[in-house]
UniProtKB/TrEMBL annotation:
Residues 1-18 form the signal peptide. InterPro entries: 26kDa_periplasmic_antigen (IPR052022), SIMPL/DUF541 (IPR007497). This is DUF541 domain-containing protein. Keywords: Signal.
Amino acid sequence: MKKVLLLLSVLFLTISYGQEVKQIPQINVNGEGKVKVIPDQATIAVTVETKGNNAKDVKKQNDQKIEAVLKFIKKMNLAPADFKTQRVALNPQYDYEKKKHNYNATQTIEILLRDLSKYDELMEGLVDEGINRINTVIFQSSKLAQYQTEARKLAMKEAKLKAEDYVSVLGQKVGRAMTISDNSQTFYPQPVYSAMKTMERSDADAPRETLALGEINITANVSVSFILE
């Protein structure tokens, strides 16, 4: 009985390997969807940095400046959820020439500014209150999810259009999608706010303009495999 079962198993495997694997005709294409948007908000990271010989004094001075900065931010009527302490550090630094330790205290605040018309007022006030390092200013859209959805749909439409272009000369048609891969990466330009300086104006009361917002691109990239009919 065992010999019979073994013989049947070998016969089945031989038949299986002898059969040709049926290939499914398909086409692989990439698609990109891009939506251009004028940013309406910004995430700003700023730092107070203080240096000195005494760790306690350096930390105290830094805390006092941060306290003034936070009071100013609150006066700007920003929601409490829109600003937070991102990083606090106190580090010793050895001066090899003088052969002694100095100390460097830093505190970083991250601010979400939802009204860009307040940008100049906010940045100038932060510097006046003690901010001496502006890390990043990232412009973005409050409707990011909506624009990402639009970009994805455009990417899929472009992928299908590409596939149809390729197979149109072959007398074939594009069928259903076999696989879809999302290759999107979110990217925002990060301009560094240079300095609180603008060209002198004859009218001192004229509004200041230090921003050139331009547009940001919300982009989606996909790879799609379509069956050919």
